Amino acid sequence: MISSDQTHLLQLDEFAIALFVKLPASKVAFLQSLLETYEGLGTVRTLDVKNSLIAVITTTLQLATCEELLNSVKPIVSWSYAQELEDQTKQEYFGFMKTETTESTF
């Protein structure tokens, strides 16, 4: 369960969790390659290029380790948690919110 002081997180399912992070656009590739060196720690997904918003998708078991790595590179990458996002906005980034229903013609 995500607490109110963890508004930068979104539980995607029982295993996956997304951390919403803002960072300079020039540092996205660096952070992505760094996370890829740690097999299974996390995957970077760019959500909004204009606002330099990314999601780091990790597992609930790897969350603490992923946050530890992020904090260790903070002086180099100068990132911050994107805590101002509404829950609905976070869900829309991952396609959870459907505004229209479609009926099958089959």
How would you briefly describe this protein structure?
The chain has about 110 residues and is α+β, with helices and mostly antiparallel strands.
Topology (SSEs and partners):
Blueprint: E1 9-11, E2 16-22, H1 28-37, E3 43-48, E4 53-59, H2 63-72, H3 74-77, E5 80-81, H4 87-93
Antiparallel strand pairs: 1-2, 2-4, 2-5, 3-4
Instruction: State the secondary-structure class.
Output: alpha+beta
Q: Largest beta sheet, briefly?
A: 5 strands, antiparallel
Question: Residue-averaged pLDDT, rounded?
Answer: 85
Order of helices and strands: EEHEEHHEH
Total beta-strand segments: 5
Strand content: 15-25%
Rg (CA only):
15 Å
Structure explained in plain terms:
It is a single chain. This protein has helices spanning 28-37, 63-72, 74-77, 87-93; strands spanning 9-11, 16-22, 43-48, 53-59, 80-81. By secondary structure, the protein is of the alpha+beta class. Strands 1, 2, 3, 4 and 5 form a 5-stranded antiparallel β-sheet that branches. The longest helix has 10 residues, at 28-37. The protein is globular, with a radius of gyration of 15 Å. It starts with 8 loop residues before the first strand and ends in a 13-residue tail after the last helix. The model has no long low-confidence stretch (mean pLDDT 85).
